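Worked example 2:
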Amino acid sequence: MNEDARLIDQTLAGHSEAFAQLVQRYQDRLYNTLLHVVGDPEEARDAVQDAFVQAFVKLHTFQGSSTFYTWLSRIAFNLAATRQRRRHFASSIEQMRQQCGAEPVDQAAGPTEQLERQERCQMVRAAIAALSQDHRAVLVLREIDGFCYETIAEILNLPVGTVRSRLHRARMQLREQLKEMLIVER
């Protein structure tokens, strides 16, 4: 029995501190994923908190056919999408930068390299933010979190073929966005 399964069994047996361990294990990872998708730290934080509450309440329905994190991610993505539909939230890269702060800078790089790296990070963030919600979610789950196509399909409740086509379109759109930004910059 893996560690997650043991903690789930303990939680279902009434030991809520076991669920606290699951929260500790996955909250930062889930928050970072949702932050990239929704673009707003407050929204991501709220969605993660709501996801853990809902996971705790519905833990008895977890069947173990996927990993706990995959199941939790699906809950979180559904909640985040519902919240965004209600609020019609439109994020901009400037809002994200103001709320999240600048990218960590490599201390070994000189000032010119640091500035170039920051500019590249800003361009990539802006290009990702310009993608549609559907394309951004698939791209973040694959390229940032490293999930396989099947897991992404499970999290987003989509056929694997749809995940592949959305990822392809997202990469193409991202490439075009970055090309346009580089042309405008010069």
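Residues 160-185 form the longest helix (26 residues). The chain has a mean pLDDT of 84.
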